[in-house]
Amino acid sequence: MSEDMLKEALHSLKDTGVRITPQRHAILEYLINSMSHPTADDIYKALEGTFPNMSVATVYNNLRVFREIGLVKELTYGDSSARFDFVTTNHYHVICQECGKIVDFHYPGLDEVEHFASQVTGFNVSHHRMEIYGECPECSGTKEVH
Amino acid sequence: MSEDMLKEALHSLKDTGVRITPQRHAILEYLINSMSHPTADDIYKALEGTFPNMSVATVYNNLRVFREIGLVKELTYGDSSARFDFVTTNHYHVICQECGKIVDFHYPGLDEVEHFASQVTGFNVSHHRMEIYGECPECSGTKEVH
DNA sequence: TTCTTAAATTATAATCTTTATAAATAGTGT
DNA sequence: ACACTATTTATAAAGATTATAATTTAAGAA
After folding, report:
1. What is the pLDDT of residues B20-74, one digit of tens each?
2. Closest by Cβ to A137, choosing from B92, B122, B136
3. Which of A123, B22, B49, B99 has minimal Cβ neighbours within 10 Å of its Cβ?
4. Residue in B50, B109, B101 with CA at minimum distance from that of residue B77
5. What DSSP designation does B80 have?
6. Does A74 contact chain B (CB < 8 Å)?
7. CB within 8 A of A60, min separation 6: which ones?
8. d(CA A88, nearest CA chain B) in Å
9. Which domains does chain B have, with CATH numbers?
10. d(CA B25, nearest CA chain A) in Å
11. Quick check: B134 and B97 in contact, CB under 8 A?
12. CB atoms < 10 A from the CB of A63, how many?
C-alpha cells in the first residue's frame, strides 16, 4: 500500500527529472508512513539517526521540490512552523485548538465554491484550502470532568 | 459607518477590561479603514509617522489582544508574515498567487461542512477557514498578451 | 483633580523558522 | 568508468515573532 505510494512518488521524481537521492527517498518514505503532519524540523530530527550529516537546508529544499511537483502539500496554520502532508486524495483537516491534534476527513463537492469565487472575482482559480477548528473529543472530555 | 465600527470595537475593549491606549485606537482605526489585509509591519510602518516611538512589539501585542477578543482575524498564508483582518461579516478571500492580491467575496452555507466534520471526527467544532487560490484578472491578462 | 496601581509601552535582545551561499559530493546518462 | 550537473552540506544571514526589564500611562478611587 504505502510501498506503492512510495514507488509512484519516486516515479514522479524520475519523470520530472529530479534526481533520486537517499535523502529524498527517506523524506518521502517518512512523509508517507507518518500519519501525522510533520514540520520540517520533525522530519530533520526523525532522520538524523540515519543521516547524521544531513542539513536542515536539505529538508527544506526537498520539501519545496516535492511541493512544486505536487507530491506534498504545505499547510500553514497560525503556529510558528509549516507542516507538510503527503498528497493522497482530497481530504481536509480538523485541528484541535487545545492540543493541536490534526484529524483528516474526506468531504466532496467544495468545487462549487471555486466556481462561485471565480465568477464573482474574475479570478482564474486553481485550488482552495479549508480547515476546521475546534476541540477534539479527548480535550472536550477532560474539561467536562473537573 | 467605519466610525461606528471603531466605536463598537472600542466598546468591546472596555467590556473586556482592556485599556484603550492611543496606540490601540490607531491600530484599530487603521485596520478598519484599510481595505487591504496588512501585516504587522505594514501597520507599524503606517503609524510610525503618528507614533515615532512605537515599538513593533506593541503592534504584535495588540494584534494578539484583538485576536483574543475576536475583533481581528489572523490569516496565515504560505508567505513569510501573517496578515490581519478586521472581523466584519462572514467573508472569504481569493488570493492571487502571482501578485499576492487578496479579494473578498461573500459565500453562505459552509456550515454544513462544520456539521459534517463534527459528526465524523467527534470534534467540538468552533469555526473554519477557507481560501481560494488562483490568478487575478490582471495577472492572467498580462500572461495572455506576450 | 490628584493619587495609586496595575497594565501597557518602549527599547532591546533573543529565539525560531526559513532561505541564501559556496564548496564538496554524488546521481545519471553516455 | 567518466563527465556533467544537480544536490548536499555547513554555515551564515535574513526575517518574523516573542521575551525581558525598565519606564510610562490609563483608569478607577479618594
Report:
1. 999 999 999 999 998 788 999 999 999 999 999 999 999 999 999 999 888 998 8
2. B122
3. B49
4. B101
5. S
6. yes
7. A40
8. 19
9. 1-88 (1.10.10.10), 89-146 (3.30.1490.190)
10. 25
11. yes
12. 21
Using the CA of B53, give the nucleotide whose C1' is nearest: C10
Q: What letter represents residue A91's amino acid?
A: H
Q: Within a 10 A sphere around the Cβ of A53, how many other Cβ atoms?
A: 7
The residue type of B43 is I
Q: Do B125 and A103 touch (CB under 8 A)?
A: no
Identify the CA nearest to A75 among candidates A36, A44, A111.
Answer: A36
Report pLDDT digits (tens) over B61-118.
Answer: 999 999 988 899 888 877 788 999 998 766 888 888 877 788 888 887 687 888 888 8
For residue B34, what is its C-alpha cell? 484599510
B63 touches strand C (CB under 7 A): no
Q: Within its chain, how far is the Cα of B2 from the centroid?
A: 16
The answer to whether residues B75 and B83 touch, using CB atoms and an 8 Å cutoff, is: yes
d(CA B48, CA B52): 5
Residues 6+ apart with CB under 8 A from A62: A23, A24, A27
